[in-house]
Amino acid sequence: MTQFCIDYVDKNRNQILSQYPTLADFDNRYEVSDQMMQDIIDAASRDSIKFREDEYNRSKEVLRTITKALIARDVFTDQSAYFVVINHINDLLKQALDIINDDRRYEDILKGK
Question: Is 32 helix (H, G, I), strand (E, B) or coil?
Fold first, then answer.
């Protein structure tokens, strides 16, 4: 998958940057298409990785997000771009941010309640 994303960015970097000039634009608007997902499946098959539809269906949205994060990292040549995108599926981070942004819950935790 990583090599697929590197190859994709090499071929499409200018187009991606013209449509999404900032990481925020990319993060908010870029979508991994169904065709890209199929291309990844095809590439995996060429590498002798057996396709399992039930596993794919369970993890498809996570795979989309990982693909988007890898593309972001390569397009914006910044490792932190990967984490900006991938953190959308990081439930632990979401919970921590909810607590930090809720003064009462945050204070209760600090007090050991």
Answer: coil
- Report the chain (113 residues): mean pLDDT per 10 consecutive residues: 92 97 97 95 90 88 94 93 89 69 78 78
- At 93, phi and psi to the nearest 5? -65, -45
> Any residues with CB less than 8 A from the CB of 31 and at least 6 apart, and which?
64, 68
φ, ψ of residue 90 to 5 degrees: the values are: -95, 95
> Does the reported pTM lie above 0.85?
no
For residue 67, the SS3 value is helix
By residue count, the chain amounts to 113
Decide: 64 and 32 in contact? Cβ < 8 Å. Answer: yes
CA 84-52-7 angle, 5° bins: 45
Give the distance from CA 99 to its chain's centroid.
Answer: 24
CB 43 within 8 A of CB 4: yes
